[in-house]
Amino acid sequence: MTYLPKPKFHHPDIETNELGFTHRDYEGPISTLCAGCGHDSISGAIIRACFELSIEPHRVAKLSGIGCSSKTPTYFLGQSHGFNTVHGRMPSVLTGANMANRDLLYLGVSGDGDSASIGFGQFAHAIRRGVNMVYIVENNGVYGLTKGQFSATSDKGSKSKKGVANRDTPIDLVAMALQLGATFVARSFSGDKGQLVPLIKAAIEHKGAAFIDCISPCVAFNNHEGSTKSFDYVRAHNAALNSLDFITGRAPITADYAPGSVEDVKLHDGTTIKLHKLAEDHDVRDKGAAISALHRIQARGEIATGLVYLDSDPDDLHANLNTIARPLNTLNDADIVPGVAALAKINAALR
Amino acid sequence: MPIQSINDFVVRFANVNGSGSASANQLFARSIIRMGVPVTPRNIFPSNIQGLPTWYEVRVSEAGNLGARGGTDLLVAMNPQTWQDDVAAIEPGGYIFYDSSRSIPKSQFRDDVTILGVPLTEICNKRYTDPRQRQLFKNIIYVGALAALLDIDIKVVEQLIGEQFKGKDKLIAPNLEALHMGRDYAVQNFECPIGLRVCHADNIGDRIFVEGNTAAALGAVYGGATVCAWYPITPSTSLAEAFMAYCQRLRVDKETGQNKFAIVQAEDELASIGMVVGAGWNGARAFTATSGPGISLMQEFLGLAYFAEIPAVVFDVQRGGPSTGIPTRTQQSDILSCAYASHGDTKHVLLFPEDPYEAFEFGAQAFDLADRLQTPIFVMLDLDIGSNHRLCAPFTWDDNRRLDRGKVMTAAELEAGKEFGRYLDVDGDGIPYRTYPGTHPRRGAYFTRGTTKDRYARYSEEGADYVDNMERLAKKFETAKSLVPGPVLKSASRKTDLGVIYFGSTAPAMHEAADMLAAKGVHLDLLRVRGFPFSSEVTDFIAEHERVFVVEQNKDAQLRTLLMVECGIDPAQLMPILHYDGNPITARFVTKAIGDAVNQIQERAIP
Fold this sequence. Notes:
The structure holds two protein chains of two kinds. By secondary structure, chain A is an alpha/beta fold. Chain A has one domain (23-349): Rossmann fold (3-Layer(aba) Sandwich), CATH 3.40.50. Chain A contains twelve helices and 13 strands. Chain A has helices spanning 38-52, 68-71, 90-100, 112-118, 120-128, 173-180, 193-205, 231-237, 287-299, 317-321, 333-336, 339-349; strands at 60-64, 81-84, 105-111, 133-139, 142-143, 149-150, 184-189, 209-215, 238-240, 242-247, 262-266, 272-277, 303-310. In chain A, the strands form three sheets. Chain A has an eight-stranded mixed beta sheet, sandwiched between helices. The longest helix of chain A is centred in the N-terminal third of the chain and has 15 residues, at 38-52. Chain B is an alpha/beta fold. In chain B, 38% of the residues lie in helices and 19% in strands. Chain B is built from 20 helices and 23 strands. In chain B, the strands form five sheets. A seven-stranded mixed beta sheet of chain B has the order 11-10-12-13-15-14-21, sandwiched between helices. In chain B, strands 3-4-2-5-6-7 form a six-stranded mixed beta sheet. In chain B, α17 (507-519) links the parallel β19 (498-502) and β20. The chains are: A alpha/beta, B alpha/beta. The interface between A and B is large, with 63 and 73 residues.
């Protein structure tokens, strides 16, 4: 496999954002994933979200672990620094990067093998520390790069391509993220861009640990009859809790909603999430109710998607550590080296 | 005949862990230092919080020998559990100080030692009713009694108590009272002083008394570390904790009260090094502190940092392995696991401080080296220098010194059109330029990965790209030879064919042993290695000597292996001198081991 840049030409009337960028400025080289892979749709949604929010691409740091999902950061945001780390350890690298410079936008991309198995611990601890990040798991319930083994999110009874049924209980990363204190928790489906793009936008603007579990069918190894992570299965069992628009105030989006309750969720920074409730009884600010909604919908054999939980005034790691506003990686000698006089005092106290 | 010695003896305190003896024992050691006599204390402690045996060995040496000597001249026997072994280890003519509140049968003593019984418990029970007070003051009472027996200046002890409880002044008077209760008992019941005595001297100079871990942590502060991620593990924990304490003192912004540092206690060593790698990638100086098992866990990340060329500093406070090994004892047994950490062809830079002074120096320098070389740097401490107080030269700094951030391309340079290739060797030293994430809107972004890439950081599985990259990394390692601290040569007083290579905490024992051997007619040139990769000074030294003893504190002769492999030395030329029982190497051991080896060589040489 080699590195394939995309051709630069584009339609003369292509849409531009506030920065004068087109969505092409948010792309990367051509994807090397299988044709039709759900992950490429998620990359597309990330590109769209960043474009619509007029994010400066170079102010994003994209980090991943190992696996198909973790390859994707190469294929979006070509002007951003990226880091393909080691298997299951993206959360710690992202945490360290965030400690070094609190001013960048941290996008962590992982998979179900990467985050629910080898990296389960790191997933948990990055979330419970409240690292300001967007953590997306591209969840296909299968090990793709090693050709079709079950992952820890495979549903009990779901069948592999070879016809073997999974016997282990699945890990529900959304329920885990809720329990661990993520302040933005969502689930979506790579086949539903209308739902996914606004969720990613809202997660980007969220100043805390934002987690999105995105079901993303594997066309090569987990898209067959009997799989609970296939396109057909997820479409047929998708129980959306809500649909939403994310409104920054800079670029208001108007949408026509069918009759139903529409709620404006005002965020701390003045932005608004316009939430179109589909499940009448779901309150995104009630964590206990969110957990029971997940269980209820799962018991019906359906998959709850949408914004599951939101704390509109979150804390983050830097608030907990009381770090200065300036990024630590900009501090110079005068800021951090105590000097000779302080050392003389220390020496004196050690005699 | 009882041992007679002024300012040159070993006192061994046998205590029960958790009995509060540590601060009393330290008071004892500091009192002697304040009298101008060099002292080296060593904690020999169990993996336990309360109840198991623990020892505190104090070597008093006016001559300034700071290594462990071996043997005990005066045993302070406060732990019945270890009585028999402790008594057996006393030198002939030595002394035993014990709590005589309960009678101990004569058979439990030795005929050739002087017995000094003080009814400590009885004295305590008479004076105090609170059980905790009884326990704590018992320790101060024995310090008072020992002060009288050893002729320690009581005013010095009183002054230290005053300093120790400054701010908690209510505690000063009761401690002084306990001190004098002990002293009075000894004066009234024994002929003071005994054969072992402390006399005022002037052999401390401006030296400081500090633990290596504390010194290394301060080095990290001066070296500009702003990110620390760590996981508790003996004996490295105190390093991270000292960094925290120094940062609270020296790195809090006065105006805002906010921290110019970020410290995270990670969930494990994998996450610790992951955070360090993330922070280093993003342009902050970052480190972790760990011990052998942590190094094992960090292997994968260390390989990534090596291959992706990310600055990182790892303080390895070595203990006994393999596996959990002897967690509270000292060794130098992580040399190979650090030098070649991770799978694939990796090699890492190691620094070997000999004492707290160098722990500070190298602790700071490691961050410059990490940025300059864009690679992990290991500071190889061990429990002996890390967790024990040691006399050393005062820390030094130069206010004109600047942090060397290495080759970092700036936004202005990128804007001006300077060519950027993340893995492009522009200067011929194997070290490429890097950019911090977020530097420039259109230039300088690159993708970091553990897989092969070309000179412009583009993914590639081409063999030629792989080889090109590996050869540049080898060149970079060559560059490192001239950047790491060079070896220190101590030549024998006369010409000799025999050399010794040693490193780290072995230094004081080795120096003392060399003097002892010289007195016996065995002359040795000494070379203290301070960094890996080895420079030509090391290979020249070996070439100049017929035989070179490599003295180290592990079983498999790890530094010797590194010398053989990396410098292509004939194994026959390097004779291993190995000490690995978990206790610090002693001058007596080295003297005997090298002495025996020299005898063997000479016997073989006689036809």
